[in-house]
Amino acid sequence: METIQDKAETSAVYAAVIVDISHEKVDRPFQYRIPENLRGKVQIGTCVQIPFGAGNHIRNGYVVELSDKPEIAPERIKDLSGIATENLPAEDVFIRLAAWMKQQYGSTMINALKTVLPAHKKQKELQHRFISWRMPLREATEFYYECERKKQYARVRLLKELLEEPDGRLPYELVTGKLNVSAAVIRSLSGQGVIRIDQEKYYRNPVQTQEALAADKKLSDEQQHIVDTVTGDYDRGERKTYLVHGITGSGKTEVYIAAIDRIISRGRQAIVLIPEIALTYQTLMRFYRHFGDRVSVMNSTLSPGEKFDQFERARHGDIDIMIGPRSALFTPFPQLGLIIIDEEHEPTYKSETMPKYHARETAIELARLVPGGASVILGSATPSLESYYRAVHGEYQLLTLSKRLTGGTLPEVEIADLRQELRNGNRSVFSLRLQEYMQDRLQKKEQTMLFINRRGLAGFISCRACGYVFKCPHCDVSLSEHRGGKLVCHYCGYEEPVTKICPKCGSKYVSAFRAGTQQIENEVHRLFPQARVLRMDADTTRTKESYEKILSAFAAQEADILVGTQMIVKGHDFPNVTLVGILAADMSLSASDYRAGERTFQLLTQAAGRAGRGTLPGQVIIQTYQPEHYSILAAKAQDYKAFYEEEIGYRELMMYPPAAHMLAVQIWAQDEAAGVQFAGRLRAGLENRHFKNAVIIGPAAASIGRINDIYRMALYIKNPEYAVLVEMKDRMENYIRQLTEAGRYAGLQVQFDFDPINGF
């Protein structure tokens, strides 16, 4: 199907070209005329040759926009000289990736460029300065004794150290700092031809460790099979996307290290994406112990200078492996061969700013664009439905790890029915069974982790007596409590008044469950005053080192109980943890989100997987008001396939991803009536085009309908074909462009979010 974009590129007469992409502030574009022989060949993202400046010097630039209208007098517009095909810079791949992101996610080209070129603000180069002899050693010795006779003590100190140094070379900072020799003395000796000052560029390295390299670990048969499969395909020239589905504790990281080892032995580089900054240090150390200083890291705690230096080190081949969150994907490796996305199910891989790209799809496209191609490995104990669906349908290759490295078994899981606890008179946040187990672990000197599931806390209302959750009759998602005594559906706008009586059982125990980590910590101290407790949440991890301090203290068994949110349940190995208590397991289950079941299963499975990772057996207690829900039952059994089969049936019935695709059109308006009217026009325009199999919902109010007096609303569009949604996006962009040119778009803002991860 030929899209509007395709037609524009075919008929375009003018191209807006970015000349300088080396600066963080992407330079303004310049318009050029496309000669007839190049029309249809020039596309957004194409590297072109242009005459630039008064001298018409030929330079390379990148096309960021195509048009059939001149911005200035046509006679003043120069022609493109040609399409660049040789000596393309490393950025060429990322420019083409930006063009793909613009089209795929509905972004401006400028925003896409700023995303893929995040560290191109030039930083001041750091120089190491060294002092060495300029004159021959015999003459230098004579000069030293002369200075000694003249009692020129500063010169003597410097020259004595130089004579005693085997290589006749001293760091400049050592001379001025430790030897207390002034810069004036150094300049004087240099002017006399006695010494010279050399400068060497060096890069800031965020990895500060002296740990020795670890010996290779022997892989299990399952692990070895995965490594052999990936690298065997690679050697045959096959570039695939692999989904490694490994249970918690099955050794996915060892697989990653072994696969990277083979890839870099073939002269290629690797990128490893991890979901959260909390995991960065722990993960980095595992790689560093194997690969040494060929590893670097990228994350938000680095200074601009450190970020710039790490990208420069990658560009010049000084490192082979980059580890970090989404932004690490855009590391300019010249010979990228492998991209690994660990815990690929995590929602943090989806950007919440424009372009709202997903690291998974973007990584696969990048792997296709790099010279020679790259392989992609996705790893998780609880894969996203999108990835598993594609693996089932043959788009990805599924590889499994079914055994724990320790040789142990998965923990034993029990469900505590909080409805029954209430009937038994227990009003504590801990079930009686969990309290018994906690006391037992304290006596045995074993450790406990308490996880409070707060993800998705959006004010949903439930009955504590029977577990009933107030849901939308049209969308099968929970209603959210809004001010004014209303329950609102964030997908279709359905409303109903808040009631204090449960319509199912008649109970008056209808409320929103709100418990936080601090309340949990206080309750632990009340019930178990002898226990040593650590808390890990947003309040206790504000500083750069706080994650590591808390985790290190718990690993050293300086605490008996660790209380935390979802940040404690991912990727951490504590052999002495034999009990995990999951509090309010169904809190995320009742979020106003079609992914609620999936997120609940993932969180519970990941949390349960923290228990029994050593030689001691593990125990897990899941506390819930909905013990019969399939997500909770599947998490109890650690049965991903059972969950997938149940959930995918629901997605297919309701046309939700991955069975279909969804486009959220997010609208901000200064005037509510104008916003509603504009959203209605967008919907009417789409309906008039009669897009096949398109389901349009809304406009509906956002979960927070107004922020800072800006009204928020959304249209939701579902379709089995992603390309159809892209075409609908193109239509809306064209309509918005027409309104903008007519001056009728003031006070409105629109963003597009394909297959949204988080609610709006």
Keywords:
disordered N terminus, alpha/beta, six-stranded parallel β-sheet, GIY-YIG endonuclease, 22 helices, Rossmann fold, 760 residues, 6 domains
Backbone structural class: alpha/beta
Biggest sheet strand order reads 11-12-10-13-14-9-15
What is CATH's topology name of the largest domain?
A: Rossmann fold
* Tally of individual helices: 22
Estimate percent helicity. 25-40%
Class of the largest domain in CATH? Alpha Beta
In one word, what is the shape? globular
The parts where pLDDT drops under 50 for at least 5 residues are 1-9, 209-213
What does this protein look like?
With 760 residues, this protein is an alpha/beta fold. The protein folds into six domains: 4-116, PriA, 3(prime) DNA-binding domain (GIY-YIG endonuclease, 3-Layer(aba) Sandwich); 126-202, no CATH class; 221-396, P-loop containing nucleotide triphosphate hydrolases (Rossmann fold); 412-457 and 514-651, 3-Layer(aba) Sandwich (Rossmann fold); 458-513, no CATH class; 661-754, 2-Layer Sandwich (Alpha-Beta Plaits), CATH 3.30.70. It is built from 22 helices and 30 strands. The strands form seven sheets. Strands 11-12-10-13-14-9-15 form a seven-stranded parallel β-sheet, with helices on both faces. A six-stranded parallel β-sheet has the order 16-26-25-17-24-23, with helices on both faces. A five-stranded antiparallel β-sheet has the order 2-1-4-3-5. Strand 28 and strand 29 form a beta hairpin. Helix 19 packs antiparallel against helix 20. The protein is globular.
